[in-house]
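User: Here's a structure from my thesis project, written as structure tokens. My advisor, Dr. K., wants to see whether a designed sequence matches the one we expressed. Can you design one independently, without my sequence as a hint?
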């Protein structure tokens, strides 16, 4: 049995405890993090070699709810074991993913999996915050190369306008602000928020308030890493020689990638970029016949050059790819009542992004029963988001909503909660379904706008 090590930090009036050496010793890195009586086991493991998956860094984040953590037994009479992840666990996993992913080298091709298992839930301290801190700690002490750590907090606000750090569930119900923040010791890198008409000045103060706590947590995890961390392994990076990378980058620029990015419409950009990629690929294969992973490297370098061009033009010349000024929005047109038998419809089109939202009203008995580890309630308002492949001119199998659809649906759902009538005023069940018919930026907010039209 290995020696158990513990570290603790006072944060938000409660003790944050990180423990290693007791559980999951064969993982690359494993910790339990306790906040109140909520406990998360986080493991971080990396494959020894490069994955067969190409085109992106293969990071998997799995947030595992366990009913036993809350002392509950699953409600179904016929199935008692946990099945597919609940929407809440998917949203928690996505929050962790988008916080830790930017701190990996995007050229890394080892598979990395972070598994977050809720071992105990006290009904007061949200598991998502604990999971984000746990993922950070597990990666930090593991052999996985990662440019963390990060810290994470939730900021609430009471009736007098005073901020609350990591409000408990009861305080959250009465809070006019719910701000989820994560970041490194230097900067915030993830924000998720909802509020009731919070001023910009108050939001800026909330960021500062939360960031001070984030810095405390990252410093704390740095200490844990220093005392209990492993040596980092060498990652499998997809990279050509310095000569190859320099010459191919220059070739993309010479063939006019900078100009192609500013063509209109979107299809013209895609056609020109495809032609440029073909020309550069022919040149590269002739000049560097022995280069491995040629196609993936060319795609990677093309994306990096395009990102650099767009960012430079925006920051230095205030020039956006579609010709708009930084303060200018795309052309918008809307239409309502487009379907004959539905209760409410709205089409919202902004530039090349279009969403059709359909509203359906039902009796109070049509409410959805939500039974998860953390939640046991009836929900009268739901928003569902669908993103078919034709909306971006692609072909792929359609097998139900994925994590992205669930995340975007929840985002649009959250946006409308503050302006919905109360249950006493309007006791009926409301379901909004947004069909994204075309997408070239911010389809989730197009869905929010389409939902507003359908409700009105």
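Assistant: Designed independently from the structure alone:
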């Amino acid at each position: 049995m290995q020696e158990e090590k513990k570290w603790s930090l006072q944060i938000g009036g409660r003790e944050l405890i990180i423990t290693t050496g007791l559980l999951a010793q064969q993982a690359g890195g494993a910790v339990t993090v306790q906040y109140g009586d909520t406990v998360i086991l986080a493991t971080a493991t990396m494959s020894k070699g490069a994955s067969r998956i190409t085109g992106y860094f293969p990071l998997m984040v799995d947030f595992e709810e366990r009913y036993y953590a809350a002392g509950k037994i699953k409600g179904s009479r016929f199935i008692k074991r946990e099945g597919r992840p609940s929407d809440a666990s998917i949203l928690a996993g996505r929050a962790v993913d988008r916080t830790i992913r930017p701190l990996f080298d995007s050229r890394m091709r080892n598979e990395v999996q972070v598994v977050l298992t809720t071992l105990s839930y006290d009904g007061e301290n949200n598991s998502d915050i604990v999971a984000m801190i746990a993922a950070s700690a597990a990666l930090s002490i593991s052999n996985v190369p990662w440019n963390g750590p990060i810290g994470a907090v939730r900021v609430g606000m009471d009736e007098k306008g005073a901020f609350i750090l990591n409000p408990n569930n009861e305080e959250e119900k009465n809070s006019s602000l719910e701000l989820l923040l994560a970041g490194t010791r230097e900067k915030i890198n993830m924000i998720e928020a909802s509020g009731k008409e919070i001023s910009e000045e108050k939001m800026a103060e909330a960021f500062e308030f939360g960031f001070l706590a984030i810095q405390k947590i990252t410093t704390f995890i740095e200490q844990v890493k220093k005392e209990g961390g492993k040596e980092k392994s060498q990652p499998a990076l997809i990279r050509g020689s310095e000569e190859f990378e320099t010459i191919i980058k220059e070739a993309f620029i010479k063939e006019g990638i900078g100009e192609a990015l500013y063509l209109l419409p979107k299809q013209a950009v895609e056609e020109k970029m495809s032609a440029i990629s073909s020309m550069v690929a022919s040149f590269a294969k002739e000049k560097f016949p022995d280069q491995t992973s040629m196609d993936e490297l060319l795609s990677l370098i093309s994306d990096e050059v395009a990102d650099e061009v767009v960012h430079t033009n925006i920051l230095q010349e205030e020039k956006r790819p579609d010709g708009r000024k930084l303060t200018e929005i795309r052309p918008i047109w809307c239409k309502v009542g487009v379907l004959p038998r539905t209760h409410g419809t709205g089409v919202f089109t902004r530039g090349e992004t279009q969403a059709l939202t359909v509203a359906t009203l039902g009796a109070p008995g049509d409410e959805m029963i939500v039974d998860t580890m953390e939640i046991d309630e009836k929900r009268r308002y739901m928003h569902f988001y669908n993103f078919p492949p034709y909306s971006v001119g692609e072909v792929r199998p359609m097998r139900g909503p994925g994590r992205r659809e669930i995340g975007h649906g929840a985002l649009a759902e959250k946006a409308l909660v503050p302006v919905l009538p109360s249950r006493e005023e309007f006791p009926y069940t409301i379901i909004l379904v947004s069909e994204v018919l075309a997408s070239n930026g911010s389809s989730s907010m197009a869905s929010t706008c389409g939902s507003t039209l359908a409700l009105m």
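When you compare it with your expressed construct, this may help: The chain has three domains: 5-228, 242-317, 332-455.
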